[in-house]
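Subject: mismatched residue count in predicted assembly?

I count 838 residues in my input, but I want to confirm that the predicted structure covers every chain. Input:
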Amino acid sequence: MDVIILTIGSEILKGRTINTNAGYIAAKLYAAGFNVRQERAVADSEETIVRALGECFSQAELIIATGGLGPTRDDVTKSAACRYFGRGLLFDQEYFARLEDYFRRIGYERFPERSRNQAYVPERAKVLPNSRGTAPGLLLEDAGKVLILLPGVPGEMKALLEEEVLPYLIERFRREEPHSAVVRTVGLGESVIAERIEEGLAEIQTALLSYYPHSGMVDIVIASAIDAPPADRESIAQVAEHVAGRLEGHVYAREEKSLWEVIADLLTARGETLAAAESCTGGLISKSVTDLAGSSRWFNGSVVSYADRAKTDLLGVDPALVRRQGAVSEEVALAMARGALEAFHADWSLALTGIAGPSGGSQEKPIGTVFIAVAGPGKQAGRRFQFGGDRAQIRQRSAIKAAELLWRSLLAGQPVVDS
Amino acid sequence: MDVIILTIGSEILKGRTINTNAGYIAAKLYAAGFNVRQERAVADSEETIVRALGECFSQAELIIATGGLGPTRDDVTKSAACRYFGRGLLFDQEYFARLEDYFRRIGYERFPERSRNQAYVPERAKVLPNSRGTAPGLLLEDAGKVLILLPGVPGEMKALLEEEVLPYLIERFRREEPHSAVVRTVGLGESVIAERIEEGLAEIQTALLSYYPHSGMVDIVIASAIDAPPADRESIAQVAEHVAGRLEGHVYAREEKSLWEVIADLLTARGETLAAAESCTGGLISKSVTDLAGSSRWFNGSVVSYADRAKTDLLGVDPALVRRQGAVSEEVALAMARGALEAFHADWSLALTGIAGPSGGSQEKPIGTVFIAVAGPGKQAGRRFQFGGDRAQIRQRSAIKAAELLWRSLLAGQPVVDS
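Triage response: the counts match. Full output below for your records.
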């Protein structure tokens, strides 16, 4: 069954709101075995929505639309849907009673008149009750075309999607569970990966591959293409094995786990802890680590040593060393790593010092020069890297390289800085 | 001139990648005075792309497409564009030389053969050089239809959009500068803002308002609606004055400046510096601060004190105080703020300690309890906050509240924790 996701809202087209709804719905549908053929965003205009519905239904049997169900005058999705299907809007006494109850519960003394129109629903539509807000989800069906309308507020949309829409779609339309595999890698570029993998694969196997570069790493997903007939579980497993074999040493996960989650597992299994000393990355590594729930069990903390004096005062780096080698040097990175290990009583530490730009570069140490050190049980190691891109990219690439080196070090049981 | 933004990439339709490109392009175009009529995302299939180009050009004169320009076999945007315009793909010797140079610079010993196809460009296309990667931007024009192809990697897309595409579009197609005004606020919810603002405005003035909540703050933009005739500069200025007046005390900028940029200006003007001690936010504040180029001039650093011992060892918090009050307490937040001020020899500091969840809450201090302290010249102040949402939202709301308090403190010349 082919699906189109239609986002309704002028705020999207003005770029003031990032359209996270479409991606969320797409991921859930894909995981459940449905093909999203297209995503489309249009303005809050009845004319435009009616036209979009016509075009989309010429390409897919199911449209999931979000937005435009609110109580204000720019919410016209319901009337557009009625016009497209040639139906009227009827007052739903039962839903109105729910609304009255909802407003009473959240402390309104009188019913807000503006919200009365939320109890109007298209004739013969199935009402999907919204436990978190006032706009109901709606399901309209006619001559093999299914239109599902969901509110644009992400929390309300998500609850309705999971509680009502997905169970309905799986029950009604899904024939078989989808098969796919993922190989997540770090330290290799997309073109090198493609070269290594595709050699030795038949055309039909290559067609199963998709490459997803994200934040400097590359995921390889093995699954049937959207436009192709579904591949069987065995073919997918076979290609996944081939891919993982060709990329050995760079595969950190064969499931939907991030590099930091893999590191968390390794540290937890060893009962060990981590600390960091971040100069050029300025807290990016700490932030990524502490994004993970439960990181307090294995992450002791970090020093963001932006000023040189923080390196000497808090991390115990010898001021003479900073003067002699410069704050951006392998020796200082190593001393920072040792300092972080001691200051935080940790088993492992990462330290970074470099030039993220846009200024501060020199002939000898141009922008993008970053020294990374790893300290671990009884040892430490450091190395110079040269990263490209702007300030944000240099910072991100540095943080990922540091995570990669830590991952390699944990696997080796000692600090490793070669990748 | 009407524009459609076309995102090409199966990863979008599978929900693996959030489509941030479309929103970014939309915002830039809108600010430059162009109307985005639709956003569309389609799969990496030549057939599908050709069809989408046909449909989109029936509704708009300009299409900006991103994605599908990489070196792998699922990158088919160029061949689809050639098929749509009836042109061939030619090898561009000059661009190939640039590519060779690029790979040499980033340390490749031999040219990756797979990347050779990036030097193939459609006949009569204008090549927009990509300073950050290997895929060039491309501009194709035929019979009043303009197609601009940009790489999908956000950093590369952004650089090309700003350096090449926008100047071209403005020069070539824009008739008059759009009028709009922005009022950026912190500390008030969207519905409270709407209530305060809309009272006392005529219908025609209310139609100029849009609300853009982002990361816990709300921007109010005053501009003509996409489908309405343009408003004159004077009406917009008048409404902007009214809005700013009604929201006094919460307006941190009347231009496209972030709250941290405003804080940077205030600190720089005073010649003062900042430090931080982050527990529950785990580096989020440091990361946001150091995202800004030039932050090393006023940001000395921070301690991410995830383990209690980091609070006592590095920030000098009395261990007895931690035992008595608990690590999550106003007293410890105040001690952390003082400790950060001293450890980093800074003029101002922010400290946060709280429970971001998903576990660790109690009856007395439920998840979302966060203590924030500000220390400044000779004084400090702290306060308890209760934030809602999941771990990520609690962390983000804490970081924004801390920035708001610092902003208020800098304006007052002394620590302020009331908002």
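DSSP finds 15 helices and 17 strands in chain A. Marking this ticket as 'not a bug'.
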